[in-house]
Amino acid sequence: MATCSSLTLHHRCWSRLDLPWRPPRLMLNFHSVSATTTVAASYLAGKAPFERCSSGCIGIRTCSRKSKWIISHCSPNPFVVVDDEKYGNKQVVSVTPSLYEYILGNVREPEILRQLREETASLRGSQMQVSPDQAQLLAMLVQILMAERCIEVGVYTGYSSLAVALVLPESGRLVACERDAKALEVAKKYYERAGVLHKVDVKYGLAADVLKSLILNGESCSYDFAFVDAEKRKNQEYFELLLQLVKVGGLIVIDNVLWHGKVCDPMVNDVKTVSIRNFNKRLLEDKRVSISMVPIGDGMTICRKR
Ligand SMILES: C[S@@+](CC[C@H](N)C(=O)[O-])C[C@H]1O[C@@H](n2cnc3c(N)ncnc32)[C@H](O)[C@@H]1O
Fold first, then answer.
1. Are the C-beta atoms of 155 and 184 separated by less than 8 Å?
2. Does 202 sit in the ligand 1 pocket, CB within 6 Å?
3. What distance in Å separates the CA atoms of residue 72 and residue 74, rounded to the nearest whole number?
4. 255 alpha carbon to ligand 1 midpoint, in Å?
5. DSSP secondary structure code for residue 230 in this structure
6. Residue 294 CA: distances (Å) to CA of 95, 203, 299
7. I need a labelling partner for 33 at 20 to 30 A (CA). Which of 45, 244, 246, 285 fits?
8. Are 37 and 10 in contact (CB under 8 A)?
9. Does residue 253 sit in helix, strand or coil?
């Protein structure tokens, strides 16, 4: 039994635990950047079956046969072992800061995107832009599809939309929806610098209104790719409108589907988390699309229209 004075677990890992026991909410101290949860051990000492393995990892022993989650926090090869009965002892990589740094070191980020990311870093809301590995995946999906017509819902300063516009052919078009005029100015500056302004149709206003106007304009079933990254509570509405706008075989990608891990924590029930959780559940049951939930960035679900 651990007797040290404090234990630190990634909130993401914490949320994955299927324990009969949980610390009270008040004991959790969330740090926005690292999403790390520090739990006072004075509470833990008497209540949780914590152990340190020989390599110094924090493990959690549970009495229930069903709860076989193991958190390997400090190990250089951190992983989660999922329930062996259901998943065959599968070892799943849990992304630590050093592993994430390694992943980012393996991203080919175009120079213009790096400049935009760095300029955005000093602005309010900079944490909203997708990560370089996410942007690279979006660009690759667009290339695989050989997409010509794309839509982005939630542009901010343009990082993800620029990644898409850069790989569109000269004849390609990206409808970029954003309600923040100031953020759009930054985005337009970078579209111009990157020489892709002619491919981007900037729509300043509420995204749902823009999508409805595209439908009224007879553009249903004419888009290849859409990326949704705006108001989380409106995901279902955006999805329904985009499903009309994309072709069969086209993709709709939705960001933040893991919502910093809160979606799997039954103790978190704020409006945004519940709406993302419900949206994910509806998608799982939605036979109109094939889906793949990808744990990249804050989680993206790729939907292919059937
Ligand atoms: C998460 S950020 C988008 C980040 C962007 N995809 C990137 O990678 O840089 C969300 C953006 O959606 C915009 N937004 C939120 N609700 C909106 C709405 N109803 N219509 C249009 N834009 C909206 C916000 O102003 C914000 O800039």
1. yes
2. no
3. 6
4. 11
5. S
6. 13, 28, 6
7. 45
8. yes
9. strand
Pocket test of ligand 1: the residue of 156, 166, 184 to mutate, having most ligand atoms within 8 Å of its CB, is: 156
Nearest-atom index, ligand 1, CA of 158: 9
Helices (H), 2-69: 11-16, 41-47
Tokens representing 284 are 């799982």
Share of the chain above pLDDT 90, in %: 69
The yes-or-no verdict on residue 112 having pLDDT over 50 is: yes
pLDDT digits (tens, 9 = 90+) for 253-263: 999 999 999 99
Residue type at 261?
G
Domains annotated on the chain, with CATH: 6-101 (no CATH), 107-305 (3.40.50.150)
The amino acid at 109:
E
Nearest CA to ligand 1 atom 1: 128
Counting every residue written for the chain, the total comes to 306
Residue ranges of E strands in the chain: 6-10, 30-31, 36-40, 50-52, 58-60, 70-71, 79-81, 91-93, 149-153, 173-178, 200-204, 223-228, 246-255, 289-294, 300-305
Question: Distance between CA atoms of 300 and 71, rounded to whole angstroms?
Answer: 23
229 Cβ closer than 6 Å to some ligand 1 atom? yes
| CA of 220 relative to ligand 1 center, distance in Å | 23
85 — pLDDT class (breaks 50, 70, 90): confident
Most distant pair of Cα atoms in the chain: their distance: 67
DSSP class of residue 74 equals S
Interface predicted TM-score (ipTM): 0.99
Q: Is 184 in the pocket of ligand 1 (CB under 6 A)?
A: no
